[in-house]
UniProtKB/TrEMBL annotation:
Residues 95-399 form the Phosphofructokinase domain. Substrate binds at residues 218-220, 263-265, 319, 375-378. It catalyses: beta-D-fructose 6-phosphate + ATP = beta-D-fructose 1,6-bisphosphate + ADP + H(+). The lineage of its organism: Eukaryota, Viridiplantae, Streptophyta, Embryophyta, Tracheophyta. This is ATP-dependent 6-phosphofructokinase. Its main location: cytoplasm. It comes from Theobroma cacao. The gene is LOC18588012. Belongs to the phosphofructokinase type A (PFKA) family. PPi-dependent PFK group II subfamily. Atypical ATP-dependent clade 'X' sub-subfamily.
Amino acid sequence: MGNPCDTQMKLVAGAAGYVLEDVPHLTDYLPDLPSYPNPLQDNPAYSVVKQYFVNEDDTVTQKIVVHKDSPRGVHFRRAGPRQRVYFESDEVHACIVTCGGLCPGLNTVIREIVCGLYHMYGVRKILGIDGGYRGFYAKNTVTLTPKFVNDIHKRGGTILGTSRGGHDTSKIVDSIQDRGINQVYIIGGDGTQRGAAVIFEEIRRRSLKVAVAGIPKTIDNDIPVIDKSFGFDTAVEEAQRAINAAHVEAGSIENGIGLVKLMGRYSGFITMYATLASRDVDCCLIPESPFYLEGRGGLYEFIEKRLKENGHMVIVIAEGAGQDLLSESLQSMGQQDASGNKLLQDVGLWISHRIKEHFSKKKMPINLKYIDPTYMIRAIPSIASDNVYCTLLAHSAVHGAMAGYTGFTVGPVNGRHAYIPFNRIIEKQNKVVITDRMWARLLSSTNQPSFLNPRDISEAKKEDQPATGLLDGENCKDRKSMTEDDPCIS
């Protein structure tokens, strides 16, 4: 599929250590493209707005907490409508595709891209690609209109269907070219955005007037740079139902243990925030924080202590936690799914059996109930806050594509929507930082052991990682690709 990270980043330096990590524009490789007045200036819906358009020089800073002598640091181009657009309304032929796993809010994003193109810019030709990337050359398309998508935000899943893998860059771009498509909206996680970056590079190589816009999607919230991913709030909210059920079950019987497994292949954000929101959880286990079962300070000892104190307890574990403990029996070790994700064994089922076996040997009766709400959470419609967020994402993507920007992902950075280069979105995965205050808040809330020895803590502190995001994180990292005298981020 190629390596999209090989793309030269478009950097603009300024005074006092200012660096703009800009996104590509169609005029970078099609310099003679004509531009047109933005039709929004005649749109009645925008007549009450004091300022129709975003200033061309507006940028969004990545690092919001600074000292008085700090350099200005890395910025991204602010999202929003521009005075000039590079597509005429009747010229636009847009398509939308959803890839990867399900996530609450997919249909809302689809709806708002369609309605935004239609009502704000007068676009009438919009296609839905059926079945993910392979749908570009293997399946039929769906004609999308505001009437067709009117109620889809009330449903879970995606009306366009989805799939993992199936990416053939040449065939996809051939299909885009053959159909006369000139705006491509790609909704998906890091693997999908990596594919979008390669599609953009092939489009640029062919010198096609096609804007490629990515909308980042992952229920795990592990996409870097942006504040959070859509569907995350809904996932945390729905996880409360499972945790509450586990708490009721555990509290209704002697030595009851409620065990809930939540999503989080590599990052424990859902598990951590669901735990903090619930206040009923006694122990939270995530991939970023190793734990052990046997011996002093281990999980078994803590379970026994908590049962003796309270008579019941609730454990919440992320799907990617504890994989090292069961690696010997992991038949799928090293194997991947079609999206390149490592196949994991059911750690919830495994740890349930281990806990039962341990206390059976100790002749201590327990009653353990295991709940796995994973696919129930993924498949529900998004809640109000995510619906609003999806609207902003969709409209920002539409404004960017109409203004001629391409090869970008859209998302909020410190509360302001921005256009972010594909390179930054796909270069790493965002993870919970266990030396951050947010994890300390969780440990304080649950009163659980950290399961870390002093050496583990020392090693964790050495790692150059951003703070855990959402409430007070920065989601920034050292930009090693910059020049040595470039004081962007410390």
